[in-house]
Every structure is written in C-alpha cells, then in structure tokens.
Write a structure and sequence with these properties.
Layout: H1 3-50, H2 53-60, H3 64-67, H4 74-99, H5 103-120, H6 122-130, H7 135-141, H8 146-166, H9 179-185, H10 193-197, H11 204-219, H12 227-230
Helix pairs in contact: 1-2, 1-4, 1-6, 4-5, 5-8, 5-11, 8-9
Length: about 230
C-alpha cells in the first residue's frame, strides 16, 4: 500500500470510530432522558419515599446495574428530576419576563408564577411531606456551578429592581443588595402554605395575591401629593 492509501484508510477508520462514539453518546443521553421521564412520573404519583428503583428499571427495560451507571442512588435520580423541573421553570420565567412591560409587572408575575408552578407540580407538592427540611434543595444549592446560577438569578432580579427605580416605578431607597434574596426566598413559603390555608379561612390564591400586593406596595414609589393634599 502507498502512503496515500494508508492515510485514506486511517481517516476512514477515524470517521467510523467517531460515528460509533457519537452514536453511543446519543444512546446514553436518550437512556438518561428516558429514566428521568419515568422517574418523574413515579415521583409525582408515589412521592419520593414510596418510589422504588426496581419499578423504574423494569419500566425502562434496562438492567439495574446499568441504571447505576447513570445515577449512583435514588437521591441522585431525584436531584436529576429536580434539575429538570428547575430548567423548565427557568424557561417559563424567561418567557413571562419577556412579556411583562414594566418592572412592577415583572415582580408581580415572578411571585405569582413561583407559587403557581410549585403548587401545580405534584413532585413539589409532595416534597412538603417527604422532605420538610428541604434537604434536596440544600443539596442542589451545593452542587457544581450552583453558585453561578444563584448569582445570575440574583443579578437578574436586582436588574429588574434597578430598572424600576430608573423608570420612577420603585422607591429610590430600596436595598438592592438584600432585596433580591428576600424576594427570591418567598417561593419557599409554598412548602408552609398549608399551615396558613389548611383551615379554610383563606384560599391559596387569596394568600398569594395578598402577599404579592404587600411586596409590590413596599417597592412602589409613593405618588406625589398635590399642593392641596399637602395642606
């Protein structure tokens, strides 16, 4: 064989190896996505504690050993599902923010949708019972790159507040260092909402609406008084 022929054979071999690796990676990604979809349905139906890995593996049609090559434990699988839910929520928030014309509308939408998404997602609803100490959220917060995600979220909320000040919507004395963390933490009140609404004295929607308006009124710049009103 000539050097040119050897080169052609080598290049063809490299291409075939590359295609096989690409197909293997794609197959692995599809299997992981399938496991997450099945697990999401099981966690939503049975809750974290009553979900069984053997049932998920059986439905996925894979060996149990194969499962552990994707997720090292039931906790890791659940965290994977929570990451998926967080990603979907992030997309919903981005779309809602883009459709809101004022900073006031953005904050109101952020608060109301935070509660709505948590309340409508069965997995989040079950966490109030299965994980009252929010252990999984703490583990998510300690994961790789999570600090950057938190900083990005805080920065985005701070930008909304700053925009509201510049537009004359919000008070100029707002604490832009602390407020983004305070507003962002309100969504976790969802896990304690039943303590307030469980007696039927106030509805969930009424509770969320009242809390939202309370926050908005604290942010909004007071209207200027007319000379007559000042007197």
């Amino acid at each position: 064989m000539t050097e040119r022929t050897d080169l052609v054979i080598y290049v063809d071999f490299e291409k075939r190896v590359g295609r096989r690796e690409e197909m293997a990676a794609r197959k692995k990604a599809i299997t992981r996505e399938k496991l997450l979809d099945i697990a999401r349905a099981h966690f939503a139906r049975f809750g974290y504690k009553k979900t069984v890995i053997d049932e998920i593996v059986k439905e996925a049609g894979i060996a149990k050993g194969t499962f552990y090559s994707y997720f090292k434990s039931k906790d890791a699988l659940f965290l994977g599902v929570l990451d998926l839910l967080q990603e979907e929520a992030g997309q919903a928030f981005a779309e809602g923010m883009a459709s809101s014309e004022t900073a006031t509308e953005q904050v109101r939408w952020l608060l109301q949708m935070s509660f709505q998404l948590l309340a409508e997602e069965p997995i989040m609803a079950s966490l109030a019972m299965d994980d009252p100490e929010l252990r999984f959220f703490r583990e998510m917060a300690e994961g790789p790159d999570k600090e950057e995600e938190v900083q990005a979220a805080v920065g985005a909320l701070r930008a909304i507040l700053q925009s509201g000040i510049e537009r004359g919507e919000f008070r100029e004395d707002l604490d832009l260092e602390r407020l983004p963390f305070v507003i962002g933490s309100f969504k976790f009140l969802h896990f304690h909402m039943d303590l307030v609404t469980g007696y039927g004295l106030i509805s969930r929607d009424g509770w969320v609406e009242t809390l939202t308006e309370l926050v908005i009124k604290g942010l909004v710049k007071p209207a200027s008084l007319s000379p007559q009103e000042k007197e």
